[in-house]
């Protein structure tokens, strides 16, 4: 009988300590160090039944290394392919995190049901009947998807060895546990051990593994930070459960860009890919209303047209209210101060409410001009034309500042049928023969003269 060993781990960063102490030396967090059992029996390979002769790695000159393009597996999901950089790379580990109930399991089950490859979906949170009920709701009759409800990695690898799947989905990494570690599922040591076993399996067999990870209340992946370093790709599934839109972002991607994002719409039959989100984010109105302005923004590398709504009214109480939904409230206060100081609008005694439609949150400074236009429109009760949009940043001195990739924003506005776009006079634009009129403005007073 081997001796039981324990160690102290920081629950925040995963650093191991020789004894308990109040503060972690690595991340400086307080009261995060816990004791865990680390008794490890004689460890065998993930495929213990057949010993494999492994080739010893040798150094190569950099000009001798093969740089041919890595083949990828098509997921038959355009948004998922876009975020991954063209598909799943064989032998890669992809970690998908997100809020509880946001749709992580639905997304990966939906992709598993689309794939023509043999797929093993391992769930440690739901029974086979629960997964079958969700699959019937998605309306797919794929016979290549196998469902396994198991949490012990040794049993999972035994089934993998018999089935030999092309892709493995694990839901979730926090529910797995290994016999080599005595601590409970979800602990620092269990997550590290299970992930290490999956990485070894994926690299030796060139089988891609998709992991679902829980997140903490701060929005970070639960477990040690080293988990995100170990995997090849870290995806974040975001959105508000009260709204239908979901955004898939890449926080880390060894095989592609992290600037792409995918957009989905949550429906009763699963997640629908949104190829043109601008048409959904802009509401359809029969009549022109004051306080509405359209902004050309960028989410990653993707241009979007979003609607900004503002309401300016006389303050009923002594202190005027400032409220912003989907927009930084401090930046709203800054823009109001610029309007009052540089353009002469007395908004200090008025309530101002701002809303970004569609339930999304935007931090692109290029929507500043649209926010200002919506506030002025509501204050003067003068509706803006439905076919004009804005793409510029507003400075503290009232100047209209240029924004990046303005030509991409202009082309997106032209594609959606807008007739005029307001941009900074200082943007360098080389577009020619465009149908959309490019209105150049240099000061906030120029915009105020147009609206008022």
Strand % is 25-35%
Q: Biggest sheet, strands in spatial order? A: 6-5-7-8-4-9-10-11-12
Radius of gyration: 27 Å
Report the structural category.
Answer: alpha/beta
Distance between the termini: 85 Å
Oligomer: single chain
Helix content: 25-40%
Output mean pLDDT. 86
The biggest sheet, with number of strands, parallel, antiparallel or mixed sense and barrel status, is:
9 strands, mixed
Task: Note poorly predicted spans.
Answer: 49-55
Shape field: elongated
What is the number of strand segments? Answer: 21
Brief descriptors of the model:
four-stranded mixed sheet, 25% strand, elongated, alpha/beta, 452 residues, 21 strands, nine-stranded mixed sheet
Task: Please give a structural write-up.
With 452 residues, the chain is α/β, with parallel strands linked by helices. A nine-stranded mixed beta sheet has the order 6-5-7-8-4-9-10-11-12, sandwiched between helices. Strand 9 and strand 10 form a beta hairpin. Helix 2 packs across helix 3. The longest helix is centred in the middle third of the chain and has 18 residues. 39% of the residues are buried.
Write the layout of secondary structure elements.
Blueprint lengths: L5 E5 L5 E2 L15 E5 L40 H7 L8 E6 L5 H11 L4 E5 L4 H11 L6 E5 L3 H11 L3 E5 L16 H18 L3 E5 L12 H5 L2 E7 L5 E9 L7 E7 L2 E4 L3 H5 L10 E8 L2 E13 L7 E4 L3 H14 L7 E7 L11 H13 L7 E4 L1 E2 L5 E2 L4 H10 L4 E5 L12 E5 L2 H8 L1
Parallel strand pairs: 4-8, 4-9, 5-6, 5-7, 7-8, 15-16, 17-20, 20-21
Antiparallel strand pairs: 1-2, 1-3, 9-10, 10-11, 11-12, 13-14, 14-16, 18-19
